[in-house]
Amino acid sequence: MESTDAWHYALTAFLILTGIGLAYMLFRLGTLLGHATTDLDAAMEEVVPMLGKTSVTLDHVNSELEKIGKVTDTAVDTVETVDRTARNVTHAAAAPVRVVNSAVEGVRHAFESFKAKRQQRGGVV
């Protein structure tokens, strides 16, 4: 047996062991991918119904928010109506007060004018 034959046998043994190692590694990788696929399928079976329930819940929440929007719009309209009514009442109440104030101011002016003319004439009317 020559040294080249020894090298050939060593190379053959190395390649056989490498092949066995690669086959074992590929077998383990296949097993791992099989478990990953099974786990993903199980997760999808759990997640998809939850997503459906979430979608239904969001639809209900949106429906309630629409109702709240309508109530809010109604409340805003009511507040605007009350504000308009309060302004009208204030304006209506202020008009007679202005008339009375003008009348009182006229009487005061007339009295002061009368009093000033009386003092100019020496107290005689």
Q: What's this, in brief?
A:
The chain is an all-alpha fold and 125 residues long. The chain has one helix and no strands.
Describe the main β-sheet briefly.
none
Query: Which percent range fits the helix content?
Result: over 70%
Taking pLDDT < 50 over at least 5 consecutive residues as the criterion, the unreliable ranges are none
Strand content: under 5%
Mean pLDDT: 88
Number of H/I helices: 1
- Structural class determined from secondary elements: mainly alpha
Radius of gyration: 51 Å
Described by its quaternary structure, the protein is single chain
* Cα distance spanning the termini: 164 Å
Shape estimate: rod-shaped
Kindly state the number of beta strands: 0
- SSE pattern: H
Which short descriptors sum up this protein?
mainly alpha, rod-shaped
What does this structure look like?
- This protein is mostly helical and 125 residues long.
- Helix content is 94%, strand content 0%.
- It has one helix at residues 3-120.
- The radius of gyration is 51 Å and the shape is rod-shaped.
Topology:
Elements: H1 3-120
